[in-house]
Amino acid sequence: MTDTDGTAGLDRRLADALERLGHGMRSLAQRTAREHGLTPLQQQAVLALARESRVRREVAALAQEFDVTTPTMSDAVAALERKELVTRSPGSDGRRRSLALTPAGAEVALRLSSWDGPLTAALAALPDADRATTLHTLLRVIADLQRTGVVSVARTCTTCRFFGPDEHPDPAAPHHCHLLRIPLPLAGLRTDCPKHEPQTPDASTVPRRQRTPAP
Ligand code: SF4
Fold this sequence. Notes:
Distance between the termini: 58 Å
Strand order of the largest sheet: 3-4-5
Structural class: mainly alpha
Radius of gyration: 20 Å
Number of domains: 2
Bound molecules: iron/sulfur cluster
Largest sheet: 3 strands, antiparallel
Number of helices: 8
Strand content: 5-15%
Helix content: 40-55%
């Protein structure tokens, strides 16, 4: 068969390219973590604790986010405590421990914040429209992978119960956020929204007006 449009094996090549990217990023993460005396998992924990989020401050939530067991994450957090980068204090129920960065931990997080600089620089060189389309496409893939259980935690627009897909005619801003009540431009889709709430299995069948919370 003639591959007139060059699409034969396109999915395979796309998967290969993403896998290649993943290898590169893992290697970069190992290098930056080593430079700061951390393991890649400890680095991820420090960066996660530095980001504003109400759900990431317990060991179990961090473990779920990074697809490791709770004991593995507990070991990483214990190592960060020994390095005086993280502290634990009683959570609201007085039992589960809430995690926070120490001032030294916040300083390390600041130095680590540009660990993926080579990737962001490469992306910044792309035209705006390409970046917006790439973000949209990747978030759709992530949503599919979450539905099939490959990705466990994703606080992205495409996995949020307030996400209204394709509700506007503008191709640059076709989606809608029913919580914020605004159109969502492709370039403005969130990858880690603090207001994200997971979709229920039948979310797509719920009428839109019911997905809009009371003011
Ligand atoms: S609440 Fe946040 S994640 Fe959900 S659709 Fe709105 S902007 Fe996106």
